[in-house]
Amino acid sequence: MKILVIQKKRIGDVLISTIIFEALKQKYPDAVLHYLVYEESFAVVDNNPFIDKIVILTDSERKKTFTFLKFLYKIRKEKYNVVIDAYGKPNSVIIGWFSGAKKTIAFSKSYTKLLYSDAIERTTNSFSEATTAIEHRMLLLEAMSIEFSIIRPKLFLRPKEIEVIQNKIATKIKEANKDLIMISALGSRDFKTYPLAYMAAVIDFIVETTDVKLLLNYSPNQQYEAHELFKLCKKESQNRILFDFYESDLRSFIALTSKCKALIGNEGGATNMAKALSIPTFTIFCPGIAKQGWNIFENGTTNVAVHLSDYLNDNETAEKSLSDLYLMFKPELFEHKLQSFLQLNCQ
Fold first, then answer.
1. Strands ordered across the beta sheet of 2-6
2. Which of 24, 62, 273, 301 is the most buried (most CB within 10 A)?
């Protein structure tokens, strides 16, 4: 049996969807499993032992009609028996439908009902610590006679990747046995970014509470904002931040995160990668995004998530703009939770 799984974009989604492969291999150990992703997501699926082949859909293939048609025929030649479309957008449904697979599975939408053999209804509420992000993906597998189980997403580093990052850490940190904390300093978008002044206060609190060095995680195009955050921190905090220790390559970032005591900051792909490495996380959610669904494996100890709704009721936040909500989400609200997290994981 040959199966194609489609989940093309957003690093967090691509990583979470890798649980499908582990579940399939458990049920069908002889199945050949392919994963279709965008090139920028390759790093989080590289070296995954449950995936037999990674199929890359390049920018030119998806943006130009002729090259996309060539890609579709390449997919058809693979003669897949099953396509599991965890992405479920028109572009991916075209791929799944054109593949010629007899069994095609996706979440229920008007066009998936029309073109796919199995259109699965999402559940409304979460029923486990895995949250709907995991539960919905496992729900897709019911059409493959696979019962629900909690599977944690995983990242797989090579020994050489770990060795390289260990050597880099040794050259950057002169003090022996100095631990690292990764700060998810900026969100993937402006509206997912905790106000810089508040994040600086969080960093100052970490420095006052622990004896660690700090790394800032941000996209290469966010360097200006990261530097502004750095300038807002107290002098002692600035001395603890290794601002020039930055890994723009995603595999190197994953390796670096694997050597950190914890990841703290804005919710996003970095949080999911840290969890996949079994690194403790303290996640600050955007007030405009419900944390239910993506507060995966929140347990109050090694994985903690905070949201404005945890502290203020709907009457207090009704009809407020996102910027106003963020201003209401002061670090003092969750300081006790952060202190407890640091004591448990970073001492």
1. 53-57, 32-38, 2-6, 82-85, 103-107, 118-120
2. 273
Chain segment 73-113, per-residue pLDDT in tens = 999 999 999 999 999 999 999 999 999 999 999 999 999 99
Give the span between the Cα atoms of 338 and 300, in whole angstroms: 10
Helix boundaries (H) for the chain: 11-16, 19-27, 59-63, 65-77, 90-98, 110-115, 131-140, 159-172, 196-209, 223-232, 235-240, 250-258, 269-276, 314-317, 322-328, 331-345
Burial status of residue 223 (CB atoms within 10 A of its CB: 0-12, 13-18, 19 or more): middle
| Whole-structure pTM value | 0.92
Predicted confidence band at 290 (pLDDT cuts at 50, 70, 90)?
confident
CA distance 146 to 155: 23
* Residue 83 Rama label (left phi>0; alpha psi -120 to 50; beta): beta
Closest CA to 19 of 84, 69, 81: 84
Q: Is the dihedral of CA 122, 124, 127, 129 positive or negative?
A: positive
Distance between CA 101 and CA 117 in Å, rounded?
10
Question: Angle at which helices 331-345 and 196-209 pack, to 10 degrees?
Answer: 40
Alpha-carbon dihedral of residues 70, 71, 76, 78, nearest 10 degrees?
Answer: 120
Measured in residues, the chain has a length of 347
Range 207-224 average pLDDT: 93
- β partners of residue 305: 283
Q: Tokens representing 150?
A: 């909690």
